[in-house]
Every structure is written in C-alpha cells, then in structure tokens.
Amino acid sequence: MPITLSDEAAQVALGEALGHALDGRGRVHLLGDLGAGKTTLARGVLRAHGHAGAVKSPTYTLVEPYELGEHRIYHFDLYRLGDPEELEFLGARDMLGEQALSLIEWPSRGAGWLPVPDLEIHLTTVESGRTARATACTARGQAVLAAVPADLRDISSHKENEC
Predict the structure, then answer these.
(1) What is the pLDDT of residues 100-143, one digit of tens each?
(2) 104 with 114: CB under 8 angstroms?
(3) Which of 29, 42, 60, 144 has the smallest set of CB atoms within 10 Å of its CB?
(4) Per DSSP, what are the bridge partners of residue 134?
(5) Rounded mean pLDDT of 18-40?
C-alpha cells in the first residue's frame, strides 16, 4: 500500500530514511512522471549521507557524482538518454558497482543495459501531495525496506517478480 507524502518535507524525510537504510550501497530506480518528486527524494537520500548543498536533477549531464565521506553516490537522470549504450561511454558500469549507491531517474531509458535494482520507488502526484510505493527487487532491497522506520513501512511491497 502506498503512503501519502503531504509535502516536500515528507518526501525528503522518506529519502533520508531510505538513505540511512541503504547505508551507501545499492541501486535504486526512481519512477514517476515529470514533477513527481524523484529529485526531491534523491535529495533526502543524499542528506542522510551528509550532503547539505542543493541537489538538481542531472538532466543534461546524465549523472552527478557525490563523494560523501566513505560513500560514493551517483545520481543519474536518464530522461535525455538517446540510447542505453551511451551509459557504457559514461563509465556507468563502474558507477553501478556494489561499492556505490546509484539513484536512477527514468530507468526505462536504460532498459536492457541497467542491472536489476535493489529497489524501485514509484512516486505519483495526488491532490494531497505525492504517494510513494517501494518494491524490493532483490534480497538486499528486502533488507533495506525492513530497516526503514515502522511509520514508513507502508511503502514496502516485497514483490521481486515485479521488477
């Protein structure tokens, strides 16, 4: 069952909770229409790791790297990606490794090239703000959702076959 996020602060708080549970590793696909709050959620994840600056969607650069303490976090926005093979030229294979955290907006643009995510977060715009629903796609994703605070657990649906 999705949870309702009434405002931007609630979206950032969800991102922070997920960021802490992810502990600097994993692959997260952020899904939703334009303006659904994918970058806002990514800002929360980055804040959980100590980033205090602005977070903009890397629409034109395709990826924004962050070195935060011992963690490497890559924020991808594939909206303008012409062909999934372009990710190879960006060096994305290394960025998507097990020792980094990758947040990927518009992952459908990289279909067939991107590895299976640990989590898919589906954001939807509704009258009262946004709704969020998470799907664990791997055992690691299930462990991450289990670590999310109880008041946010309604976002979790452990259906690996949906990814």
Answers:
(1) 999 999 999 999 999 999 999 999 999 888 999 999 999 999 99
(2) yes
(3) 60
(4) 121, 156
(5) 95
Question: From CA 40, how far away is CA 16, in angstroms rounded?
Answer: 10
Q: Residue 108 is part of which domain span?
A: 3-151
Is the distance from CB of 48 to CB of 20 less than 8 angstroms? yes
SS3 141: helix
Whether residue 94 is contained in a domain is answered as: yes
| Residue 14 maps to a domain | yes
pLDDT category of residue 42 using cuts at 50, 70 and 90 = very high
Q: Which residues contact 97 (CB under 8 A, 6 or more apart)?
A: none
Q: How many domains does the chain have?
A: 1
**pTM, rounded to two decimals:** 0.91
Length of the chain: 163
CA atoms of 127 and 83, how far apart (whole Å): 35
> What distance in Å separates the CA atoms of residue 153 and residue 140, rounded to the nearest whole number?
16
Judge whether 100 and 23 are in contact, CB under 8 Å.
no
Quick check: 63 and 89 in contact, CB under 8 A? no
- Residue 83's φ and ψ, nearest 5 degrees, are -150, 135
CA torsion sign for 39, 44, 46, 47 is positive
CATH number for position 71:
3.40.50.300
